[in-house]
Amino acid sequence: MNPRKIGVTEVALRDAHQSLMATRMAMEDMTGICEDIDKAGYWSVECWGGATFDACIRFLNEDPWERLRTFRKLLPNSKLQMLLRGQNLLGYRHYEDMVVDKFVELSAENGMDIFRVFDALNDPRNLEHAMAAVKNVGKHAQGTICYTVSPLHTVEGYVEQAGRLLDMGADSIALKDMAALLKPQPAYDIIRGIKETYGEDTQINVHCHSTTGVTLVTLMKAIEAGADVVDTAISSMSLGPGHNPTESLVEMLEGTDYTTGLDMERLITIRDHFKEVRPKYAEFESKTLVDTNIFLSQIPGGMLSNMESQLKAQGAGDRIDEVMREVPVVRKDAGYPPLVTPSSQIVGTQAVFNVLMGRYKVLTAEFADLMLGYYGECIGERNPELIEQAKKQTKKEPITCRPADLLDPEWEELVEQAAALEGADGSDEDVMTNALFPGVAPGFFTTRDEGPKSVGKTKEQLEAEKQAAKEGASAVREPITYRVSVGGRSQTVRVEPA
Amino acid sequence: MNPRKIGVTEVALRDAHQSLMATRMAMEDMTGICEDIDKAGYWSVECWGGATFDACIRFLNEDPWERLRTFRKLLPNSKLQMLLRGQNLLGYRHYEDMVVDKFVELSAENGMDIFRVFDALNDPRNLEHAMAAVKNVGKHAQGTICYTVSPLHTVEGYVEQAGRLLDMGADSIALKDMAALLKPQPAYDIIRGIKETYGEDTQINVHCHSTTGVTLVTLMKAIEAGADVVDTAISSMSLGPGHNPTESLVEMLEGTDYTTGLDMERLITIRDHFKEVRPKYAEFESKTLVDTNIFLSQIPGGMLSNMESQLKAQGAGDRIDEVMREVPVVRKDAGYPPLVTPSSQIVGTQAVFNVLMGRYKVLTAEFADLMLGYYGECIGERNPELIEQAKKQTKKEPITCRPADLLDPEWEELVEQAAALEGADGSDEDVMTNALFPGVAPGFFTTRDEGPKSVGKTKEQLEAEKQAAKEGASAVREPITYRVSVGGRSQTVRVEPA
Known about the structure:
Oligomer: homodimer
Protein name (chains A, B): Methylmalonyl-CoA carboxytransferase subunit 5S
CATH class of the largest domain in chain A: Alpha Beta
Keywords (chains A, B): Transferase
Strand order of the largest sheet of chain A: 2-3-4-5-6-7-8-9
Region (Disordered) (chains A, B): 447-475
GO molecular function (chains A, B): methylmalonyl-CoA carboxytransferase activity; pyruvate carboxylase activity
CATH superfamily of the largest domain in chain A: Aldolase class I
Pfam families (chains A, B): HMGL-like, PYC_OADA
C-alpha cells in the first residue's frame, strides 16, 4: 500500500518569526531562500498576515503589499497562505463588510492563495463575510476553529463548529492550537469526529504551537485520525513558543502509512539558511523552551509576560500568582472565550485590574465591550451582573447582533482619509494600510521612500559582540571617566576609543 | 476501563546532566529536591553510573560512593537506577569477572536497586557476567538493546537480541536510543515483536534522547505497543541532546488509555528547583536544540564535535564533510557497530585518520583492537583485509572468544595497588575507584578530605555576570594600560578599578 501523502504548511516566513522573534524578520533575510522553499514540496507557504502587516510598517519601514508581491514572484510554484482575523482583517477593530471585501480582493490580486480565517471568540458571524469574500474571488477559504479548553468546550462542540464553517463554503477546516493546549487524544477525537460527520474527504489542516512540548505527538495522532495537512517550521526556526520542526515531522513518519514527500536536501538548505538568520534577532527571543504550566493555567506565554509587565509598572510585580488565579474567574464571567489576540489581552488586563483594585471595581473599556457583545458571542453565558455594570459604566447597550452589522459603509471615507496623507500613493493598498493601522501608516508613508530597515544585527555586529564577550570587560568602547594615576599624581580623565 | 499505568524513570540526576552539562552537576544542587523526587511517584530514579562516577572524582572532588549512599538516604521510597557498561563497568577497559562481581556487590550494598546493563557492540558475551552478578545479589537486572540503524539491523534482529537478554535472566529489557535515532514506527514494531514473542508481561523500558525532536512521538507509539516504563527528564532539565520533558509525557497521555500517575504538583516543584540550577552550568551546555542531520549521517552530536576538534587540532577544520562521508565506510568495515561510547570515538577517530592520511594508511590502536575482536563481536562481518592489516600492525592475533576470557584474576592486585595510595582508606570502594580510573583516583584520594567542589557558578556570580553584561564594555574591571591624552599631552597610563 502506498503511504498516504500528508501536506505540510511551512510557517517559517510568518508565524515562526512572529512567535519566536516578535515578527521582526526583514524581507532581506527571506528572499534568498525562497527558491528552495518553493521547490521543497510544501502544500502551502504561510508568509503573510497575522502580525506581519503591522510589524512591516511599524518596525521595518517595509510595505507589506510589496512583501506579498515579492513572495508571489519568488514562490511561483507555491500556494501562498495568510492568517486573517475575520471581520478584524489584520487590525484591531471590526471593519464594515465592503472593507473586508476590498481587503480580500487586494490580497488575492497581489498574490494570496489560501486565506485562513479565524475569530478569537469562535463566533461564526465574525468569519462568514470574510469567508464569502474569499469564495467570491475564487481563492481557498479555510475556516478556523480556535482550540481552547474549558468546562463548556467538547469534542462534539468542535465538530459542530466545523459544520458551521463548512456551511459557509469552507474549502478546508483549520484546527488552530495557538497555545499548544491540544493534546493527542482530543486532536484525534475532534478530527475523527469531523471526518465521520462530514465525510472523509473534508480537508483538515492542523496548526499547533510547540510551547508545551507535546504537540508533535498531537500531529502524529491528528494524522492517524485523518488530518490532511499540518503546519511546521524548519528546525532552525522551531520550538519554544514556535512550532514543531519540519524535518522531525518528516522523519517521524518514516515506516508509517504516511509520508510528506518533502525534499530533505532542500529542507537542509532551508534550515542552514535560517540557522544563520536566527541569531540576528536574538534580542527579540523569549527564553521559554518548554512550559507545561499552560495546561494548568491555560494562560499562553505571551499573555503571561504581558500581565507581568503591567504588574511591574504598578509596582506589584510580586502579585502575578494572584493574577494567575484571577484569570480563570474573569474568563468564566466572560463566557469562556479562547485566550488569543485580542481576548487574551482583554481578559488578562481585567484580571490585573481585579487584583490591583478589587474584583470588578473598574472594568476596562475593552472588557466592558466584551461583556456587552461588541466582540461577538462566546460559547458560555456572560455574567449578567457584569453586563449590567458594563452598561452603566459605558452608557452603551448590550448587543446580540453581529457586531459589524452596526457599522456604516466606510470605504469612501477611508479613501478620503488616505488621500490626505503625505506620501500615500493613491492606491487601494495604501487606503487599506491606513485603514488597518491609522496610528502607524501616516508615519510610514512619509518614510517609505527610504526603503526597508532591518532591525536584525549584521554579521559584523554579531562578530563584534562575540569578540567583546571574549575580551570581557577589559576594553573601553564608550567614553567613560576614570580616576587615573599618572606619575604619582591622581587626575580625573576621560577615556574613549581612538 | 482503567487506563494502563505507565512507569516513568526520572533521569534528571544522571543522564540529563550528563547529556546537557557534561555530567558536572554537584551533589549540593540535587540533595534539596530529593524529597519531592522521592514522592512524585516515579517507577525509578536514575542517579548513578554512566559518566557520573568519572566526573565525580575528575571534576568535583566528590566520592561517588558517598554520592550513592546519600541518594539512598534521601530517596528512601525510590528504586535507584544506574547505567552499567557491562564488562567495562564504568571504566574504559574490560575487567575480569571477579571485579565485575565485586562492583555489583558494592553498588548493591551502597543502595543500588536497578542495573541497566549494556554493551556498546550489543555483544551479549560482554553483558552476561554483569547480568548474572546482579541476579546473584538479588537486584533488578535490566538487559539493554543499544538501538542503531544499518543495513543489517532489523526489527527481527532486535527481537532476537531481547530473547538473549531474557535468557540471561533479565528482569526487564531496555530499548536504549542514545542518539535519538529511534523513530515511532520501528519502536512500535520492536516492542510489539518482543511482547508477542516472549509474552505480554515482558517488561520493556524505553530510553530515548530528544536530539532529533521526534522521540516524544516515539514514546507515544512505544506505549501504544505495550512499553511499560519510559525515561524522561523534568522539563527544566530536558530537550536538546537530553531527553523528553516529564511533564509533557504526563500531559500527552491525558484522555488516552494510559496514565503515569505522577504527582504534577511535585513535578512543578522539581522543575522549579532545576530551573534555578541549570544556568549555573550554562558554560557546559551544547547549543544544539534539535538536529535531524543525525538521521542522515548517523553521527551523534557528541561524536561530531569530537571529530571537529580533532580536525582543528590538525589544521584541517574545513574537512569535516569528508570525514562525515568517511564515517559510514569505517563503520561498515567494522561490521556496523552502534555508535556509542567507546565505538563512536573509535570509528570517528579512524575516519579522521583516513581523511588526513589516506584511507587506512594508519590504524589507530583502538581501531586495530576493534578489528581484531578485542572489544567483542559486531553484527556484521569485519573487513578481512583490515583484520590482516591490524594483525601485522599490532603483532596481535585476532580473537573470537569473549574478550574478558583472556583476563587473569586481578582483584588481589587491585587491592594492593590501592593500598599503596596516599589517602585511600582501605575500603573495597576505594579499590574499585582506583581500578576504574587509575589515572584519576590517586589524585582524588589525596584531595578527598577537602570535600566536594562545585564547578557550577554561584547565584552571586550569575548576578555579577548579568550586571556586567548590562554595563557592557563601559567599565574597566581589570587593570589595563591605555594611551590617554590629558591637556593635549599624550601619556601611557594604567587604569584599574578604584
